[in-house]
Every structure is written in C-alpha cells, then in structure tokens.
Amino acid sequence: MESALLGSFISAMATVLGAAPIFFIRKLSERWKDILVAFTAGIMVSASTFGLMPQAINESGVLGLTLGLLIGVVVLDLIEKNIPHIDVENDSRVSSFDSKSLLVIIALFIHNIPEGLSTGFSYASQNQGLGPMVAISIGAQNMPEGLILAVFLINSKVSKLRSFSIVFLTGLMEAVSAAVGYFTASGIGGMIGYGLAFAAGAMLFISYKELIPESHGHGFERSSTYSFILGLLIMLYISQWFG
Fold this sequence. Notes:
The chain has 7 helices and no strands.
C-alpha cells in the first residue's frame, strides 16, 4: 500500500515539476510544445496497449476489457463535452484572472480525476510492475500540462508563486483520486480488471482526442510524429523492464 500511495503521489506531483520552468521562462515555443505533447501521447498509447489492456484481460477477460474500456472512453467524452480541455497556452481571449481562468482551472481539476484513478487501479493489480509503469506514463503527461497551465496563469497576470500553488493543487487532486481508485479496486473483488480497462480507455481517449491533434496543428507534424514513436518505444522498454 505504501508503494502505491508513494508512486501515485510522485506521478501526480510531476505536474508541479513540469511547472518549475515558469521561474525562468514565460513562453513555450509551439515546436517544443508539439514535440512534448506528441511524446506524451506515445507514452500513454504504449502504456495502454502493452500494459493495461493485457492485464485487464488476465483479470476480467475480453468482456471485462470491452466494458471497462468503453466506460472509460464514454466518461472522458462526457467530461470533454461539458467542460472542454481548453488550450490554456493559446487561448488569447483570456487577459486577466477572471471567470474564464477559473473555468480552465476547474476543467483541469476534473480532468485529473480519471488520470488519478488510472494510477490507483494499476497499483491494485496483481501485476506489481504495472503500477509504476502507469505512474510513469501519467507523470509524463502531467509535466507538459503543468507547464502549459503555469504559463497560462502567468499570462493572465497571476504571480509566479500563486501560479505554482494552483498547479500544485491540481496535482494534489490527482493524488487523492489515485488513492480512491486504489482502495476501491482493492476493496471490491473483481473490479481491478474493469478498473484497468477503464484506465486504458481514458488514456487512449486523451491521446487520440486531445494530445495527437494538438501536436499536429502548428506545422511541426513530422517532428511530432517522430516524437510520438520515440515515446511509444521508450514506454515499451520501460514496460519490459518492469515485467
């Protein structure tokens, strides 16, 4: 249990680590943003395909995988429709810390809940290497997200310290939801496989709906494609390392 809570917390706090460069920079180039986002997408697709989905089949069979994965996709889709994942760096409509800024923060809080659940479900699995692998993939996704949020807040006339604190709170929400996922899956027999499938569906939705399109809209598609493949391969080697 201790390793699960620690791993989930570190993964969530990767959001804070991603925000650290705001003390040195104010703007993130589109090219590097696209490369980082595509790299993250490769990591998440790899973790879902080679880690979460096979283990979900082992735990609950193909039917359990199908149901859990579809639920994960639908839940993320509903979140996306009702509270869009705003491009917080390029939303030029925001010039001050107002209701629009608050909407962005609330959206990221809600988006972090299924990500935290994914980590918690993975640590509850019988496959001891799955939890750290998913924690790494979610943490990799959190780092550019934390940086983009922090840059957005600074551009909205929020102080660097306050921006950093807000990013910390969004990461903390993910850590709390990871703990909820872990204890829920551990306490309810037969739920782990469905939870892993849910996590796979959520991660695939994030990758295909948000990360990949976002990394291919500014003229750096070739660099982003290579970055995606690199992320996928690195995560594949990590999954082999954790067994």
